[in-house]
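[Automated response] Your request has been received and processed.

Submitted sequence:
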Amino acid sequence: MSWNTVTLDVTDGIARLTVDRPDALNAMNSETLDEIGDAIAEAEDEAARVLVLTGAGEDAFIAGADIDYMKEFSTPEALAYAERGQAVVRDLIEFPGVTIAAINGYAFGGGCEFALACDLRVASERAAVGQTEIDLGIIPGWGGTQLLQRLVPDETARRLIFFGDRLDAQDAYERGLVGDVVAHDDLYDHVDEMASELAAKPRHALYAAKEALNAYHETGGEGGLTVERRAWSGLFGTHDQREGMDAFVEKRDPEFE
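Generated structure:
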């Protein structure tokens, strides 16, 4: 499929989804949201094991929602837009594979929320992130109030949202918002290496791990443990479980499906 504001490339089980509005710093309007959702679905249809999300150009990952597009929204229009944005965030959270945000520049507002929705985050040394909505007279509306608290303590989340701080890459790393900071020119090589390693892992076990990890945040500790137990036991009898354990006992490299 082809779209106006995003591109998708799927190779060897790895999908790269690029928001392609560099003249607008990859800010998202309704069309972009719809196309991101469609591209995520296409990556799933293509059985991608890893989905990398990034932005076109040198300046921005996703600078946020398109302010000029939404500034005159009525309350019902704003509610519909929040619902659509949250639906795409949910698509990222529930993608049946590992999602990686390759943060190559500005990731503010909705862009920060999309990065937070990914399983892993890698930042270029030029990146800057933040839930900056407070200075627009609004708050995060695509999950930021919930997603931040998966990564940082409550006090930190409140400060980031109340003050609308813009963090450079090193600050974001030190506060736990990203897992790696790399030289700008090395960003995609680094992410590609991660993606290739993950794509070689056993598919069903990887997704079961993701489901169980997500359940902790969504259902609480005991509910998460229930999901973990079911996911763990459900892997027994699969080809990859038997192959992985046989290979361990036999001291050889496994050959997963």
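Summary generated for your ticket: The longest strand covers residues 6-11. The radius of gyration is 19 Å.
If you did not submit this request, please reply to this message.
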